Every structure is written in C-alpha cells, then in structure tokens.
Amino acid sequence: PTPHRVLLTGAAGGVGTFLRESLPGYGYSLRLSDIAPVPGAPEALAVDLQDRDAVREAVRGVDAVVHLGGLSLENTFDRILAANIEGAYNLYEAVREEGVGRVVLASSNHAIGFTPRPEHPEDRKQDLPIETPFRPDTFYGLSKCFGESLASLYADKYGVETVSIRIGSCFAVPANTRMLETWLSPADCARLVHAALTAPDVGHTVVFGTSANTRGWWDLAPARALGYEPQDDSEAFAESVVAEHGPLVPGTPEYRYLGGAFTTVQPEGFR
Ligand code: NAI
Ligand code: 15L
Q: How many domains does the chain have?
C-alpha cells in the first residue's frame, strides 16, 4: 500500500526544510522530528535520535520514515557514533518493533568518497555503477556505510524495506563547481523521495541521488528504475558558478575524488 503518514527525522535541517514544504503536495501527511526546534512547526517532536524510547514513540503509527536526522558533516568519531550510528540503530529498532514497512535513508556520496574520478575518457563510457564498493572519506561517510548495511540487515532479516539514497549535493542552487556534477535540486529531491516511498518491493535498494546534470557521472538508472524522473540540470547555473569559482583543477581533491574536499578534512578540526 502507498504510504500516507510519514515521519521526517531531521526536519529542521536543509533537506528537511525542502521536503516538509514539498512532500505534502504529493499527498503525504507528515510528522516532523528533530533534536532542534523546527522553524514554523511548533507541533514537531523534539527527539534526540539517541533516546530510544522517544524514537520509538515518534515512529508509532506512521507508514514510512524518511530518515534525514543526524550529523551531516565530518565530526569526531564519538559524535558520529552517537548521532549517526546509534541513531540509525535506534531508528531501525523502532521501525521493526512498531511494524513500519518502509524507510527512505539519507545516505551520502561520502560512503564512497575516496573513489577516484575515472581519468581516461574510455572509462567514462558508462556512468559510475551503484555497485561501487564502500570507500568512505570521513567518519561521517563511514556512518553512511553503516546505515546502508543496517538497512540491508533489516530488509533481509525482518522485511523492513529501505531505499538508501546516496545524495550528491542537495541545496537550493549549486554552490561551487563540484556541485555542477553532484547537485540534487530540491524539486528533484522530492521526486526521488516520492519514488522511493512508493516503488514496490524494493527490499534494500541503493541509488544515487542527483538531478539530470549534464556534468553528472554517477549512474541514475537505479533511481530511474524506482520511477524517478529528474527534471533539473545544474548546467543552467554553470556559467555563473564557473565564472565565480573557476573550473575543477587536476590534482585537487575535488578533481581526484568523488567525495572532493571531504577526503582531506580532519576530525580534529571539530574538537
Ligand atoms: P542538516 O545538518 O541541515 O540536517 C540534519 C538535521 O538532523 C538537523 O536539523 C539536526 O538538528 C538533526 N540532528 C542532528 N543530530 C541529531 C540527533 N542526535 N537527534 C535528532 N536529530 C539530530 O543536513 P541536511 O543537509 O539537511 O541533510 C539531511 C540528511 O541528508 C543528513 O543525513 C545528511 O547526512 C544527508 N545528506 C545530505 C546531503 C546534502 O547535500 N544536503 C548530501 C548527502 C547526504
Ligand atoms: C554531504 O553528505 C553533506 O551532508 C552535504 O553538506 C554536502 O557537503 C554534500 O555531501 C556534498 O558532497 O556536496
């Protein structure tokens, strides 16, 4: 059955803000949660993902969860462990116990961030396959590998279905030259989450989440197979973005690796 009541964790964040505006237009009735207040939504549940009982209460009675909550950048291992790893575990346990059938998991390109950019033109005949092995570029990316593996376990063992979306860069507009390759427009994000909520029999399915970017190089076929039809292309912003930031330069992290600058960020910077 098509899910109707959907819990959005991380509702106060950037992607949460886009989705709480767009998803009701697809017919969903949203329940919002975040550790932080959700602007303009006093009814939102104040839930720390570390609080198992509160998480269980938050998922009770919904048909599906869109799990966005957690740290969205690199941080110390302890903080990543608490918010992203234990948080995801608490969420999946709650979903299993409450009989919720479907999760859409905000994974990230940083689960495979140390994947090198294919150097040779002949390597680019085919876009990067979704089967690319885990190659996290941060503790943050590592927590997304954990999340995807957790989703796999709960699908196989308990029949909790998940679509893990390895999101590229979901912002209002592409903010730098790398994002011309990785951008997921807010409208395409809603299209993809809707497809992920409604596609039948997904088991655990992993997809890349970007718009139909001219400069994109990650395979969108798995997302399209769910029914996703991207409508946006970052190329519309290319001239102004490249004029401001310059082209990608060979030898830099943004050029060498899928995960860009995350490959050089140090968790010590967050202590
Ligand atoms: P964000 O940082 O703006 O939002 C995350 C939200 O999670 C925040 O509102 C924060 O208060 C909440 N949160 C953090 N710790 C929590 C805890 N312990 N308990 C409950 N809530 C907690 O991030 P954004 O950009 O909205 O991303 C949403 C999700 O999508 C994240 O999981 C992120 O890793 C993932 N993602 C986002 C990308 C993007 O381009 N925006 C790219 C790839 C993945
Ligand atoms: C992510 O996973 C981050 O949450 C987001 O802030 C962006 O930096 C994005 O990846 C990206 O790779 O652009």
A: 1
